Amino acid sequence: MSESSASLSDLVVERVDFGIFVLDREMNVLMWNRFMHDHSGLSAEQVVGKQIFASFPELPRVWLTRKLESVFQLGSFAFSSWEQRPYLFKFDHDRPITGGVDFMQQDCTFMPLMRDREVVAVCVTISDVTAVSIVRREREEAVAKLQEYADRDGLTGIANRRYFESRLRDEYTRWQRYGGDLSVLLFDLDHFKKINDRFGHVVGDTVLRVMAQRVAEVVRVQDTFGRFGGEEFALLLPCTPLEDAMLVAEKIRCKIGDTAIDVQGTLVPVTASVGGACARTGVPAYEVLINEADAALYSAKRQGRNRSVAFN
């Protein structure tokens, strides 16, 4: 290579917008370009000729040593994505702090440098992919939020019917495979149409929201509480026999009905009827479980409302 070509190569290496440094087998730095200088604060004169860990003790020593050793032994390229390891060097980034990342996110390439078919050094490149990572994270968060909204009832914030039934289907499949206990409660507010007619739909919506909050306070983390539509709600109780489920039903009924709901100074009395059913031999599908709980619910209403009834 001519002297002018060599100087052009050096100029390119210095001016490229990504980090380039070279390490020998003893982890000594042989080259350090301008990008590395600008982002680390250490010049080539300060770093070259020294072991990389002497200048950067915070580097992941075990991981980096293993990565480089594989390149030396196999003579093939290696790569590390920011998704696997967010960064190698703790470099600052120029993105807004609202992006949710502390340091520059980096993709790293490890390239063997050969002489006489032997790897004599490894060239490591550092690419700043902070912008890409932030966009990816924001997209994933947006998708997760949309999924959460898709699973939630817009009025009460609890699970909607579609999500509830998907959870029930999964739990029913688990019960079919492993056995145990599984119960479902269906309940709705008594004479809710009268509440809407007397106080208006705005008050009715408030009643539904407050009722959902009250019930949410007594359900377990592993339970799924959802709105079936209108004033009808459902509670999925995994690993719960029907006897215990009916104790929960009574707790819910009392939680709803013991205290009138205050809506802008207007006290609205509310009661609920509850029906319960459990998975057992002879129940062929989870839909049957819902139908049985629904039958128990209507039995509670026929018996005078404001009570809990188990399917028999």
Structure description:
The structure is a single chain. Helix 8 crosses helix 9. This protein has two domains: 3-136, Beta-Lactamase (2-Layer Sandwich); 152-310, Reverse transcriptase/Diguanylate cyclase domain (Alpha-Beta Plaits), CATH 3.30.70. It has eleven helices and twelve strands. With 312 residues, it is of the alpha+beta class. The model has no long low-confidence stretch (mean pLDDT 90). It has helices at 3-15, 34-40, 44-47, 52-55, 61-74, 130-151, 161-178, 192-199, 201-216, 242-257, 286-302, and strands spanning 19-23, 29-32, 78-80, 106-115, 118-128, 182-189, 224-229, 232-238, 261-263, 266-268, 272-278, 308-310. It has a five-stranded antiparallel beta sheet. One of its GO terms (cellular component) is plasma membrane. Residues 180-312 form the GGDEF domain. This is diguanylate cyclase. Its EC number is 2.7.7.65.
Q: Layout of SSEs?
A:
Layout: H1 3-15, E1 19-23, E2 29-32, H2 34-40, H3 44-47, H4 52-55, H5 61-74, E3 78-80, E4 106-115, E5 118-128, H6 130-151, H7 161-178, E6 182-189, H8 192-199, H9 201-216, E7 224-229, E8 232-238, H10 242-257, E9 261-263, E10 266-268, E11 272-278, H11 286-302, E12 308-310
Parallel strand pairs: 11-12
Antiparallel strand pairs: 1-2, 1-5, 3-4, 4-5, 6-8, 6-11, 7-8, 9-10
Helix pairs in contact: 8-9
Determine the mean pLDDT.
90
CATH-assigned fold name of the largest domain: Alpha-Beta Plaits
Shape: elongated
What structural class should be given to the helix and strand makeup? alpha+beta
CATH superfamily of the largest domain: Reverse transcriptase/Diguanylate cyclase domain
How many β-strands, per DSSP? 12
Count of discrete alpha- or pi-helical segments spanning 4 or more residues: 11
Total count of domains: 2
Q: Which regions are unreliable across 5 or more consecutive residues at pLDDT < 50?
A: none
Strand content: 15-25%
Which bin fits the share of residues in helices? Answer: 40-55%
Radius of gyration (CA) equals 32 Å
- CATH architectural designation of the largest domain: 2-Layer Sandwich
Q: Order of strands across the widest beta sheet?
A: 2-1-5-4-3
Assigned CATH class of the largest domain:
Alpha Beta
Following the backbone from N to C, one meets helices and strands in this order, namely HEEHHHHEEEHHEHHEEHEEEHE
EC number: 2.7.7.65
Pfam family, one: PAS
InterPro entries: Diguanylate_Cyclase, GGDEF_dom, Nucleotide_cyclase, PAS, PAS-like_dom_sf, PAS_fold, Rev_trsase/Diguanyl_cyclase
GO molecular function: diguanylate cyclase activity
